[in-house]
Write a structure and sequence with these properties.
With 345 residues, the protein is an alpha+beta fold. Helices cover 40% and strands 19% of the residues. The chain is built from 13 helices and 10 strands. The protein has a 4-stranded antiparallel β-sheet, with no helix packed on it. Strands 5-6-8-7 form a 4-stranded mixed β-sheet. Strand 9 and strand 10 form a beta hairpin. Helix 3 packs across helix 6, helix 3 crosses helix 9 and helix 7 packs across helix 8. The protein is globular, with a radius of gyration of 24 Å.
Length: 345
């Protein structure tokens, strides 16, 4: 199957399936009859549902298929005991080393291991190619340590489906306005959001500071996609209300006030703590207040921050600044020295 044909299927999968079910077939696609078989692979899940990995074998075509290579093609699905099915991927081919049947079987990672035709290629939906190794390492550790809301967000950015099935974000170095540590593009370009990291501002930042910045900016990218491709109606309505209140030319006021007036502020603190624990810090010694103060980084212009007592503002500002600069800082009667190690020497 040509790349052009693959793209047609990927981009228009839902439309093609809906049309087929309604008796409307696209002249650009050859439709194949299929049979269905499944076997239990993972058993009972934590949510009480059992799950099977199931396969759909292409058996014969109702049109002339002599010019199409579909030998040993398998569509793989996750099938839950509540009746829901979720498409995983397709594998095709008959030339895999040591195995010429069952589309070379399945690699267990939602992707085929060989062949040609409809095989799903591995894609990097979180593009860190231009970043330094130490910055890549921090982001990878963040992704690996996430457990709650950010786990779901990172998974949305890290699956091999076209937008809006998953979202795409790329990181780059550059300069951001007003001396910001990083900034996220307001617009999605070719299916990608872009996060720009200010190297000069982050040159002495600790790993804890850089990790916080990445959580903060990834959330910006996620909300931008949710605004354009809503997967959560409640969040989309809430986001639009904040944009109506604070304006949409600069999304920071809307996003930042949404962060601090909902659970997102606590999510940042929680995931930063998870990262720190995975990186070897004694999070119990640091205490929850440390991570809650760090979560306020970049949010000092919000209404809730300005309403805080000056003593709290000073404590938070001293902590955030110390981790960002790698040196001690004093605001009013509050002083702080960096706890984290320098992210990139």
């Amino acid at each position: 199957m040509s790349t052009k044909e693959e793209n047609l299927l990927l981009i228009n999968e839902d439309i093609l399936i809906e049309g087929f079910l309604n008796g409307i077939k696209s002249p650009k696609v050859t439709y194949l009859w299929s049979d269905f078989a499944s076997s239990l692979v993972d058993g009972l899940q934590a949510n009480g549902l059992s799950v099977e990995r199931s396969l759909d074998r292409f058996l014969q075509s109702n049109t002339d298929i002599s010019n199409f290579n579909f030998e040993n093609c398998i569509d793989w699905y996750w099938v839950y005991s509540n009746g829901c099915e979720e498409y995983s991927h397709t594998t095709c081919g008959s030339s895999c080393e040591g195995n010429t049947q069952d589309a070379c079987l399945d690699d267990g990672q939602n992707g085929g291991v060989g062949g040609n035709g409809l095989e799903t290629e591995e894609e990097e939906e979180i593009d860190m190619e231009v970043l330094s190794d130490c910055h890549k390492d921090i982001i990878k550790k963040l992704i690996g340590s996430s457990q709650q809301e950010f786990k779901r967000i990172f998974e949305k950015f890290n699956r091999n489906q076209p937008v809006p099935g998953n979202y795409n974000v790329k990181f780059q170095y550059g300069t951001c306005p007003l001396g910001a540590t990083a900034c996220t593009s307001k617009n999605i370009q070719d299916g990608w959001a872009t996060i720009t990291i200010s190297q000069s501002v982050n040159q002495n930042a600790t790993d804890l500071s850089f990790a916080r910045t990445m959580l903060h900016e990834t959330l910006h990218a996620y909300l931008i996609f949710e605004q354009n491709y809503p997967s959560d109606c409640d969040l989309n309505c809430l986001l639009n209300n904040y944009i109506s209140k604070y304006g949409g030319n600069n999304l920071n006021p809307a996003h930042h006030n949404l962060y601090v007036e909902t659970k997102f502020l606590n999510d940042i603190a929680t995931e930063l703590r998870n990262y720190a624990a995975g990186a070897g810090y004694n999070v119990n010694t640091l205490g929850d207040q440390f991570f809650k103060d760090m979560a306020w980084g970049g949010l000092h212009e919000t209404n809730l921050f300005k309403a805080k007592p000056i003593s709290e503002q000073n404590r938070i500002n001293a902590r955030v600044k110390a981790e960002l600069t790698g040196g001690s800082h004093t605001y009013g009667s509050s002083s702080a020295s960096p706890i984290g190690i320098t992210a990139c020497d």
